[in-house]
Design a protein that fits this description.
The complex is a heterodimer of chains A (131) and B (102). The radius of gyration of chain A is 21 Å and the shape is elongated. Helix content of chain A is 82%, strand content 0%. Chain A contains 4 helices and no strands. Chain B contains 3 helices and no strands. The chains are: A mainly alpha (131), B mainly alpha (102).
Amino acid sequence: MMALILDILAGSLILLGGAFCLVAAAGVVRMPDVFVRMHASTKAGTLGVGLIGLGACIHVAAGGFVAKALLIIAFMILTAPVGAHLLGRAAFRSKTAVWDGTEFDPDIEKFSQPLDSSQSAQSQPEQGPKP
Amino acid sequence: MNVFTTALGGFVGFASVAAALMVLLALVLTAVRLLRGPSLADRVVALDLISMLLVAFLVIFATSSAREAYLDAGLALALVAFLSTVAFARFIERSGTPEDDS
């Protein structure tokens, strides 16, 4: 009885994780611009990998397997937001085209002004001659 | 031994085959965005998702074939994927020009 419950739980988690992976890919294909696509891929993709890993942990339940699967999940949860933030900032600074329905903050110039000046301030010493 | 002749019976066997098929379909869809994507950032997002889906596929494969070594491959792939995303983000930020060719 217990084995059956664990079987159904692990199978449901793996199926749900696969469905989330599919939703992430559908979002990446269908969404209108980079930032919205990143929204779909990062969150749904991380959740899909996490659910699949959790289901595998419940099903296999051997020490080394569970440790490695949990390590993969923890690493995904740690690195996916960092990578998405770096990528989104890079896309914003390089002025990638945004969707027409995007509502900008009224102070958007104030945000992009220090970015440009800091960018040029960063790139200025790099282009100069190194002592 | 492939994914579709899984060693597992019962509901988990069915679930792992179905999830592997869904991840494969997701890989095809993401490859469409990788090929079409109007800007460079779109392609990098698709590449990031592809590596994430490959990790998911390796976890499913490790479960259905009961071989732990595939998890090591998945862990290494996750590490390399993060580094490549960071490197591509630096590259986009450094190049600084709009990359639209649509």
